[in-house]
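User: Sequence recovery, please. Input:
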């Protein structure tokens, strides 16, 4: 699928899921922990690997060889290990607020239990990659804190993959916004894609603010 330019009139307010705004990520730690802790069945792993292959072919293939990547919202360990195994990926650092997201990770992955709203991103990176995480935050958390914090720690690009608007992910109490390519978050990006046959995943690509700077020692 081809990248598209962000619409010139992008900038409408992020759609809020008002019924979920009074919750925080910490309210859902038991749910996340139950998802990340059990071993996945072969069928679940095969199904998810198809999604990861799609992300590799459509997005991560454009990451420069040997790049450093910070995974914001690590999630399932086999997903982080998959990204770490790709030939163009160098050093991987990952964070999550759930400790079980760090179980069974490859030994060379630096994993940190981290709340990025309360703490700085630990270093600077070529890319920040986040899949199905940014929509867990409120509009004000994203626009007033998270997006600039990510951009200021990145040399090449910040990449968010999110559910598109309200398609395909109903009944998710952990979701607080519904991103689209013409809202105020997308207005900060340079390009976008919609993935899967029904377009239910949105990819936003934001140029990093540290262009030309060297990696922290």
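Assistant: Recovered sequence (217 residues):
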């Amino acid at each position: 699928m081809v990248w598209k330019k962000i619409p010139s009139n992008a900038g409408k307010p992020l759609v809020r899921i008002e019924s979920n705004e009074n919750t925080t990520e910490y309210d859902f730690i038991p749910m996340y922990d139950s998802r990340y802790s059990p071993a996945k069945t072969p069928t679940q792993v095969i199904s998810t690997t198809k999604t990861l292959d799609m992300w590799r072919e459509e997005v991560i293939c454009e990451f420069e060889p040997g790049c450093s990547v910070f995974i914001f919202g690590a999630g399932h360990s086999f997903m982080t290990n998959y990204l770490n195994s790709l030939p163009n990926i160098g050093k991987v650092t990952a964070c999550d607020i759930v400790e079980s997201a760090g179980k069974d990770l490859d030994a060379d992955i630096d994993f940190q239990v981290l709340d990025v709203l309360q703490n700085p991103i630990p270093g600077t990176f070529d890319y920040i990659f986040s899949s199905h995480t940014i929509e867990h935050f409120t509009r004000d958390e994203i626009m007033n804190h998270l997006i600039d914090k990510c951009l200021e720690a990145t040399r090449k690009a910040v990449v968010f993959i999110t559910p598109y608007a309200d398609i395909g992910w109903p009944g998710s109490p952990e979701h607080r916004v519904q991103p689209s390519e013409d809202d105020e978050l997308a207005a900060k990006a340079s390009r976008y894609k919609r993935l899967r046959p029904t377009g239910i995943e949105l990819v936003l690509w934001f140029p990093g603010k540290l262009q030309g700077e060297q990696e922290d020692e």
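The radius of gyration is 16 Å.
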